[in-house]
Amino acid sequence: MENNTMLSxxxxxxxxxxxxxxxxxxxxxxxxxxxxxxxxxxxVTQHLVLAGTGIDQxxxxxxxxxxxxxxxxxxxxxxIFLDFDSKFTSxxxxxxxxxxxxxxxxxxxxxxxSRSIISIIPDLDLSLTCTDFEMPxxxxxxxxxxxxxxxxxxxxxxxxxxxxxx
Length: 166
Prior knowledge:
By secondary structure, the chain is mostly helical. The chain has one domain (4-165): Up-down Bundle (Four Helix Bundle (Hemerythrin (Met), subunit A)). The protein has helices spanning 4-22, 27-30, 41-52, 55-60, 74-81, 103-120, 143-165, and strands at 63-64, 129-130. α3 runs parallel beside α6 (103-120), α3 (41-52) packs antiparallel against α7 (143-165) and α5 (74-81) packs parallel to α7. The chain is globular and about 45 Å long. It holds the Pfam family DinB_2. This is DinB family protein. Residues 12-161 form the DinB-like domain. It comes from Pedobacter ureilyticus.
């Protein structure tokens, strides 16, 4: 099981890779939908902004002790999001609007999200279950599982952005 330091470093690395992927686009290509894609790179980025916004508050919010292992769903979450051959439909509440987005503004939002999560990880008891938000299809997650979700979900869309850039 990952400890707080390892989790923090993994999150930093994941968001660094995401930033590099986004920087492969210019302001124009960032908002263009590639052939066969429903989303532009900007919309993928906005999806990550919507998915990450408020995660810090859930991590700091109400919790319960966890029955079972703190990392009980990590392998399942990893299997879902790092299966790049599977396609998913986004829940409506994190579906991006089909509009133009400013690349720099989106990067700033993602940087703020990552910094806010990374700043609180050192003091978190990762074994507690977050009860302020129930993840669709997964239920309530431990802090460890929720941070793992952020990592694997971001890695999935970083892969998608890199494919779009190619």
